User: Fold this.
Amino acid sequence: MPEIKINNNSITCQSNETVLDVANRAGIHIPTMCWIKDFKPSTSCMVCVVQDKRNNKIITSCSALVEDGMDIITNNEEVLDMRKSALELLLSEHQGDCEAPCQRVCPAEMDIPLMNRLIAANKMDEAIHIVRETIALPEILGYICPAPCEKACRRKDIDEAVSICLLKRFTAETDLKSVEKIQKSLTAQNVAIIGAGPAGLAAAFYLVQKGYNCDIFDSNELAGGKMRTDIVEEKLPQYVLDKEIERIKSMGVNFYQNQTIDASTIIDSLSEKYQFIVFAVGSEKTIETENFEKTNLSELKELEIFRVKNCPIFVPKQISYKSKMAVRATASGRKCSEWILMFIESGIVSTPEKKFNSVYNRIKDEEQAEFLKDAENHDVRIQTETYLKGFTIEQAISEAGRCLHCDCRKKDNCSLRTQSSNYKASQRVYTLAQPANMQKNTEHPEIVLETLKCIKCGICIQTAQNTNDSTGFAFSGRGFDVKISIPIEKSINNLSKFTAISCAKNCPTGAISIKK
Assistant:
């Protein structure tokens, strides 16, 4: 039997095994995109390349049969560069957004398209759950947020942007679930939050849900910060502010108003009682940090960590940005809760890995019809009677239906996105002189076909063959014009439900995806 080396590990093999088979059996990771066990290798993605040190040749591990004496390297610089280049070539043809533009520009990173789809389906409980995953004060922000998401909305390239801000407010207004006090363990850690503005409120909202005892200290008579003192009633009704704050109180957060907290208070009192302190006040206030020990426990530009008597003090810089967007401060408060968890787990707040995002260009006039295929409502933006009144449920459902579903249906399980993130591939290294226009086939009741996201691996062809489907998929065209299509004189509607869903599940990108 042949014997080969992979990364200096000697392995005995069967003669009919590929290098990838042996690596998988030995627990040695080689990335793949167009490979599925028991399918014929297509060698289309080139992400599984490795190097044979005998002759320094680069080979595709998914198709190369083992040879006695092979000396395989899976992770040297040349191999990694080849994989990155292969990904960048695939990305040069890839047309579509991973995340929708509205979500990309949202300071809170809210999954806006999913909220829209849930509202359109009249699933209001699920919609508000999605909103509150990243936005602690949705009803307040529904009044005062300047809505950068709407400026990025692709629907405005056709007529007018979706009323995202009002839809977000609507989910909070219709949230009738009562909030129960969150029960915490006797060993729960204590967090002092200085400042009851949007950042402090958001930090408490998320920390208390994770089991922390949260006390908010604020120098004003009432909580709310500048949202209460600087915004007129006609813009933000006080009862809305009170309602959102009361919700946080009912979760078990304690508020201490008329409390001026300075450096000596932190040193003499708070650092003794609390395991963490979060400084969440606005731009006009500063903390006297010269009396605190500055640490190097944060790798982030937007966060400084100080220490007093072994008590870490988190000072998010984003709160003091000149921008007056409360949504930015709210996002900073949420991130602070995540940073505390990261600190507890690893003792440091490190820079998170950045996910790759494919970005589509502006919608061309000739592409409007293709994008509208995913919108339930082709009408123009719904106008409310007054700004303060907001939407009725019928209006909200209709307006949410205007969403174009710009985000990829497989953004969370796309191999191209995953590998591009891992290898830090760029979409701009290679560009087509004249990119093709967007094409969407939404005729099948179960799946959507987007050929400009296809990597021409042929997995869908093999999948359909394995299910004995009489329709299936086929390659058409030549050279750069090759694409996946339905055979001549057939319709995509002829695909069985089982075959269609199987093809969508096996597709490594969002080229074939399940409707949802």
